[in-house]
Amino acid sequence: MFVILWATGFVVSRLLVGHVAPVWFLALRFPAALGFMLVLALWQNAKWPAPALAFHAAVTGAFMHGLYLAPFYWAVAHGMPAGVISLIAGLQPLLTAFLAVPLLGEKVARRHWLGVIVGLLGISLVLLPKLSFALLGGITLLTMALAIFGTASISFGTVYQKKFATGIALSTGGVWQYVGASIIVLLISWVIGDYGFDGSLQAWGALGWAVIVLSIFTVMLLVWLINHGAVSRLSSLMFLVPGVSALMTYVWFDERLSPPQLLGMAVCACAVLVVNRASTIPAEAQ
After folding, report:
1. How does strand 280-282 pair with strand 106-108?
2. CA neighbours closer than 13 Å in the CB half-sphere of residue 46
3. More confident: 212 or 266
């Protein structure tokens, strides 16, 4: 369920192109999600976190939502195929595993590292055939750099959540996460100065799905999974997202992949099998 719903986020990023300024879309989405979470927290009479935990939740939200999605959406709006950018997000297991070792004390099995290497090979097969050295317009060094930055942000946010912001109710924690995310994207929107929103059915549909399904249900599911499992193992699920996203964007937008890129997708799927069969062992259990 998580993989399928998470993959729709890349479809949304493609759906809004030409209808909503990408970062402004997030500046509308996150405060709306914050409002929904606030109503849910009040309805549940959920316990509010102490100030220190609230701060950590806000930092988590800034990285896991704001600094993750803003570069991704901007890159898609400037020509990066949504199916391809989802593969760059497949770098998350590597980055998360690197961070989980020193920050969480997780020991990652050798098979996990093998799976990550195989996954990176698959990602390379997808990116290299279409790489352009132009500034904008497709798979360029700039859009790749932004996608990698976004992936690094959610990787850091995932580990930060596990280390500093566990034990918070999902609803109240979500409120503070979206406080942090909203501040980040509103600042970026102010710097960019692009507030386009054409009010079309496509724009409102994308916003509604993004707020209710992605920002509320899927993110709460992600946080629940982080709180109940080893981070490096959970993040390996991200290797499944690119293939699902590519299929969705092919059906809706006719985004096509070349044979080498399809091979890369298959290689990434093999990496999922390798990584999910690996075990992660907390350092204190050694």
Report:
1. antiparallel
2. 20
3. 212
What are the boundaries of each domain within the chain?
A: 2-285
pLDDT, residue 54, reads 94
Quote the pTM value.
Answer: 0.81
Q: Per-residue pLDDT for 73 more than 90?
A: yes
Scan for tokens 């479809």, then name that residue: 11
For residue 156, the one-letter residue type is F
Task: Specify the range with the lowest mean pLDDT, choosing from 14-23, 149-158, 245-254.
Answer: 245-254
Read off the pLDDT of residues 82-124 as tens digits, 9 standing for 90 and up.
777 877 777 777 777 777 776 777 676 677 777 777 777 777 7
**Read out DSSP for the chain?**
-HHHHHHHHHHHHHHTTTTB-HHHHHHHHHHHHHHHHHHHHHHHTPPPPPHHHHHHHHHHHIIIIIHHHHHHHHHHHTT--HHHHHHHGGGHHHHHHHHHHHHH-EEEPHHHHHHHHHHHHHHHHHHGGG-B-SSSSSSBHHHHHHHHHHHHHHHHHHHHHHHHS-SS-HHHHHHHHHHHHHHHHHHHHHHH----B---HHHHHHHHHIIIIIIIIIHHHHHHHHHTS-HHHHHGGGGGHHHHHHHHHHHHH-----HHHHHHHHHHHHHHHHHHHS-EEEGGG-
